[in-house]
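Collaborator request log, item 7. Partner lab (contact: R.S.) asked for a structural prediction of Class I SAM-dependent methyltransferase to inform their binding assays.
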Amino acid sequence: MSDAAPRLKSLVEQLLGAPLSVRVRAWDGSQAGPPGAPTLVVRNRRAVRRLLWKPGELGLARAWVAGDLDIEGDLYAALGMLAGFVWERGEDARSLAQALRDPEVRAAVRGLLVLAGSPLPPAPPREEVRRPRRRLHTKHSDKRAISHHYDVGNDFYELVLGPSMVYSCAYWPAPESDGGTLETAQRDKLELVSRKLALKPGLRLLDVGCGWGSMAIHAAREHGASVVGITLSHEQAAYARKRVADEGLTDRVEIRVQDYRDVTDGPYDAISSIGMAEHVGSQRYLEYAENLLQLLKPGGRLLNHQIARRPQRDESTYDIDEFIDAYVFPDGELAPIGTTVTQLERAGFEVRDVESIREHYALTLRRWVANLEADWPRAVQLTSPGRARVWRLYMAASALAFERNRIGVNQVLAVKTPESGRSGLPLRSRTWN
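Returned to partner:
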């Protein structure tokens, strides 16, 4: 009798106390759920074991990365239907011990154990990062974390990011529309940063977390700046150096493999930090801000472009995102924008402007997902089936998180204001000259 799908759907709904809006197809060919809805494909019993041994987001992620779970139909719609069980229920969910006091929950778990088969927990997919968490954000641990994420292969990043090779939020002409190309929107973002920093010939720019060199090249080529770009990724640095040479900019752009804590050749006129500060960590953030302040001339500007999470009533209970930490950005931490502004000002910066561009990141991520899906066989060839699945899930889920205001992204313009109090910024904001 082929009845795994209706049994599985019924037991999960009993466990969660809410209906599943997706359709379910199980390993025995059975199906259950609304016709025409996106389909959650449960390929084997191991997927159920993963969810039982690690309930919640990480169990789902392990099953997805291993290929035990899949989605047919609209990926975004399916993730939107499943998101409530991860997001809305995760913040105030009862502990497992409390939940198991409910007879219905116990009955559902027993039913799922029967469906799952062998009680042994499956090994995590090999793409999962497994390391001690005793000392975070040392120079060694940060370099290892950056290597995990960025040394996937430059060819893979070219496939996902496109010719711009910019791995941060683009700046679209109209967030509510789907017009414009990714390359144009990324160029506009680099130009926005350049104008906020008032770059011009002869100024020294430090680009912290320079990636594949796009900001450094733009600043030198379009504004005549002298640029030092730093990264912890050897693959990124090699790629960026070649791009710089191809552009004929070796006299104005230097790319280093260097930790921001080891930069000693200031002062700089301006610093850009685009999508890097998420790796710093809350315990190191003040040190990060103080280091950058010391590297700036009086009157120098910092443009800090950073993803932010929503604040909680009790910040001491904040937990990291298990999937992101295990598969995407090991040791990465997000902070509320208010915390970031406070830390920058504690370090001695004067924060002059905060621009939220949350919707722009959702548009950017959807373009990256489209690039990945359009050349899926090659993406798998360049990495692995599991790693490609990590990226597809991470980027699609992140797009929804930005769209639903679960997370945001902000550009913070801060100044090392001299004792005279003259910041050097225009009286009318957002003219950036």
